[in-house]
Amino acid sequence: MTIRWHDLSPIQFAGLAGGYGGDRAVAALTRAQLSKHLLLIKFIADTWSGDRAHRDAALAVLVRAQRADQDRFAEVLTEPLVGAWTAVTTRRLRGVTRSGVPLDVDCNHLSAVAAAVAARAGLDADLTVHVSGGGVTLPGLGRALTGIPDHTPVTVRVRDGRATVGGQTGWQPLRQLTAVAAGRELRVGLDDLDPYRGGHHAPPTDRLDPGEVQRWQDGFAAGWQLIADHDPVRAGELSAGLRTLVPLARLDAHSARSATIRDAFGAFGLTRPGNPADFAVMLIHEFQHSKLSGVLDIQPLTDPADTGLHFAPWRIDPRPVGGLIQGVYAFLGIAQFWLRLLDVPELTETAEEEFALSREQVRWGLRSLEASAALLPAGQRFTAGMRSAFEALAGRGLPTAVVRRAEEALHGAHTVWQQRHAGALRG
Fold first, then answer.
1. Is 266 in contact with 103 (CB distance < 8 Å)?
2. CA–CA dist 331, 6 (Å, integer)
3. According to DSSP H, which parts of 6-93 are helical?
4. How many Cβ atoms are within 10 Å of 71's Cβ, its own excluded?
5. HSE toward the beta carbon, residue 88, CA cutoff 13 A
6. Domain definitions of the chain by residue range
7. Tell me, what's the pLDDT at 96?
8. What would you report as the CA-atom Rg of the chain, rounded to the nearest whole angstrom?
9. CA dist., res. 86 & res. 66, Å (int)
10. Could you give phi then psi for residue 307, rounded to 5 degrees?
């Protein structure tokens, strides 16, 4: 299987540092994920000490598929939750993490990936896979239900683009959320099936009922309308790179949660937002994390050996520099979006408050980041790009009372943080 060397052009790097980047830069980040996933698959295949016949059959299918249809091959291999699987399994093979799942089952998810590739590429294949969560999940396609105990090996047969699993009693397709606005379409998977969709600070939901799926669809379409109408560059980025939403369980009646897993570029988990603006902001917020994670796969920005902790105005705990730069970048994107909503009559009041607060959060976060000695030269350039973008935001006038409330909120948060974590703040 072919692996390429990847880099960002100076223009792409500068654009991403300024909070945007555009669809071409996001496409470059996505292409890099293919090589990353292939490298990790090679490590898994080389290190796996289980059934080599399963491994060799899966690798042979992947090689055939890459030769037969590179686009379909790349489509499956860049699935975000394929990335999550490669990362989880690599850490297990290196002894970094443990799991109650047999290691051979995690490793042999390679066969499920190969079956999905064969189905997409129209190749015939017979592969041995393992049951997990009551069925066999084929990334990007769905789950074959079985009455067979978890971790049992079964055969998946692929013919004419269709996969059938031994002992199959039903099929749950991967649902899709679709939205079209301002001539732009966004289509993402709503994944409540994949065994590697977890790892957030709230558990993923089980299979959603049709009524709840419709509520997700309605909120998604309304949020996309706001983005496509008022932030077309951001819309282009999302269309180019966002692939999967993982619904998370709501742990209490008032909590709304979202989180991006570092190894799943183009996916994030979230509880269903309550209104279109919240849905739009959540899409932008979390995709900012994906973009920066994609940059970090190509170009390190901070010294991983640095142990310094910093004040991050959106958290109550001290943050390492890696978490700080992620937060600044995410809130920069949020502030840029709220700026674009200031002139939407029904949102102006909310937009003023949210823009003022997120802009102030970026101001404080940049101050901590720029004082850190952990920034590598590329990190210094990236931070400088964020600073330039912030200065453009800083020039936008707002009502005095709105600005004062944001400043007071941040000063108050900083005071509380200092009291709780005396001596931890740097910069």
1. no
2. 27
3. 10-17, 22-47, 52-68, 70-77, 80-93
4. 8
5. 26
6. 1-31+174-296, 48-172, 300-427
7. 93
8. 22
9. 18
10. -115, 5
